[in-house]
Design a protein that fits this description.
The protein is of the alpha+beta class. The chain has one domain: Nuclear Transport Factor 2, Chain: A (Roll). It is built from 2 helices and 6 strands; from the N terminus they run E-E-H-E-E-E-E-H. Strands 2-1-6-5-4-3 form a 6-stranded mixed beta sheet. Strand 1 and strand 2 form a beta hairpin. The model has no long low-confidence stretch (mean pLDDT 92).
């Protein structure tokens, strides 16, 4: 999956103010998310005329059910250049922050 990202891609997370910059940082984050998300599944896909995709998902973080949207924009060569994650409800975002935060600090992302 990481090869789908441009080298200088940005990932905007609901748990950080600054985006994750570059394929390496995004890879470290995605590895942590694979540990944290349970029963992750995409439920819907929306596409715009310019190729932008919106993927709606459901998952669980600990005991919190979450719904979210991945907004994906591509560069001219078809690689992901900008990836924005939105999650609700707030309690799920807080659970995500708690679960991911310590792992990110341990991995120095």
């Amino acid at each position: 999956m990481l090869s789908a990202f441009a080298e200088d891609a940005l990932l905007h997370s609901p748990i950080t103010f600054k985006p994750f910059e570059g394929r390496a940082a995004i890879g470290r984050l995605l590895a942590v998310l694979l540990e944290v998300f349970e029963e992750f599944r995409y439920t819907d896909e929306l596409s715009s005329a310019d190729g932008t995709k919106a993927l709606i998902f459901r998952t669980r973080v600990g005991d919190r059910e979450a719904e979210g949207l991945d907004l994906i924009r591509f560069d001219d060569s078809g690689l992901i250049r900008d990836f924005t994650v939105m999650i609700r409800p707030r309690s799920a975002v807080e659970a995500l922050l708690h679960a991911v935060g310590s792992r990110l600090l341990a991995n120095t992302v």
